[in-house]
Design a protein that fits this description.
Rossmann fold, 4 domains, five-stranded parallel beta sheet, Helicase, Ruva Protein, domain 3
């Protein structure tokens, strides 16, 4: 890789140049020409007074040039300002050559990289802000704690961070911390000398995702803290340790402060895991995401169960936006899966979303029943039972296919 170094500190520039040349890179000079020169990437030190100006100039004149900003501050302000000025990545000092190389490779190819998760829904302003915050967090190797209620999408967002990071080409190892309570939990995490390497070692060069870290057994927390501090792991039946280099992302239902106060979580491990800490808001705070998420879940249900996908009419969408959904994404997906199974191919009305889970629409009239509603429900049920086949549905109803077609239009079931 051909690199420009725009570093104000002369000693730091010499050290970086020597390390990069030793790693096989070509360092072209201390400052780039105004057009960025024939480089693959440029490294800009944010301690320079004109750092943000240089980033803007280089990005404007060389759109394909990879730009990596380095600095001492990991606060969102520094990273966000450098990204707004055109940087493709942000790396906190101190760092080693391996971290620098990963960040430079990522910056150099970022413009050609597809979105980390094209299906990630972020229509709501809160969601857009969350994704932007996580994109900044992805530029760092620092540990990250994603905390929020169950079903809020923590795991998917953790995968987004991995895919958007310089470690995207490395492994993503997902570990359910609740499963570590079993007798072989310690071996799963740290490995055995005569067996498979543990998850810490397997995630070397990539990301280790600790799901529901609040469920990590207390007996393992101290040892995990030591491994993260030393960046070395020792198998449970061995005497020699090995270096490990995973980026750790943890998810939890809270920021763990309450768990520490209750004596269920080691304070030092909480601090180690929450170098970066991001709250994932519940779905009730991201209402504008609901329509697209609902359609995604309906499409998934149609692919898995077969048959035409149900649709949401405007009133149903409005009702969905008002729905509490305490179960977040899990509850919404279950609701849409049930809607597909009951009403496949049929436009969903607001009342269709109110039917209690596990029940079926009832055609037995009660006080104040409406014949039009009953007929519509009967047609919808017959069409559903026939898997969307109009000929079979018409035969079951005892009417002609033409009559069924007319009634489908009348009741807006097409």
């Amino acid at each position: 890789m051909r690199l420009w170094l725009e570093v104000g500190d002369e000693k730091l520039r010499r050290d970086l140049a020597a390390a990069l040349r030793a790693a096989g890179h070509e360092v072209l000079g201390s400052d780039a020409d105004e057009d960025g020169g024939p480089a693959d990437a440029a490294l800009v030190d944010l301690s320079r007074e004109d750092a943000l100006t240089r980033l803007r100039a280089l990005r404007g004149s060389a759109p394909d040039l990879g730009l990596l900003a380095i600095g001492n501050d990991l606060a969102p302000g520094a990273a966000l300002e450098s990204r707004r000025a055109g940087a493709d990545g942000f790396l906190r000092r101190p760092f080693d050559v391996a971290q620098l190389e990963r960040a430079l490779r990522s910056a150099g190819r970022r413009s050609a990289r597809p979105p980390a998760d094209p299906a990630l829904v972020a229509r709501d302003p809160r969601s857009r802000s969350l994704v932007e915050e996580l994109a900044i967090a992805a530029e760092s190797d620092a540990t990250l704690l994603l905390h929020g209620p169950s079903g809020s999408g923590r795991t998917r967002l953790a995968r987004f961070v991995h895919a958007a990071s310089a470690r995207a080409d490395g492994p993503l190892v997902e570990l359910d911390c609740g499963a570590l309570a079993h007798p072989d939990g310690e071996a799963r995490l740290f490995g055995r000398c005569d067996g498979e390497p543990g998850q810490l070692a397997t995630a070397h060069g990539g990301t280790l995702l600790l799901e529901d870290v609040q469920r990590l057994p207390l007996a393992l927390q101290g040892r995990l803290l030591h491994a993260l501090q030393e960046r070395r792991v020792r198998p449970i039946d061995g005497s020699r340790s090995r270096p490990v280099d995973p980026r750790v992302v943890a998810t939890a239902d809270s920021d763990l402060s309450g768990e520490v106060e209750a004596g269920h979580f080691v304070a030092g491990l909480r601090l180690r895991l929450a170098v970066l800490k991001v709250r994932v808001p519940p779905l009730s705070e991201r209402r504008e995401d609901l329509p697209e998420l609902a359609m995604q879940f309906l499409g998934r249900a149609a692919r898995e169960a077969g048959g035409p996908r149900a649709r949401l009419d405007p009133e149903a969408l409005a009702q969905l936006r008002r729905r509490p959904l305490p179960g977040n994404l899990h509850e919404l997906e279950a609701l849409m899966r049930r809607a597909h199974l009951l009403y496949r191919g049929v436009p969903l009305r607001s009342e269709d979303l109110e039917t209690p889970a596990g029940s079926s629409p009832q055609l037995v009239p009660g006080a104040g029943f409406n014949l039009r509603s009953l007929e519509r429900e009967a047609i919808a049920c017959s069409l559903r039972a026939a898997g969307g086949n109009r000929t079979h549905a018409a035969r079951a109803l005892g009417i002609s296919t033409r009559t069924l077609r007319n009634k489908l239009r009348r009741y807006e079931l097409v």
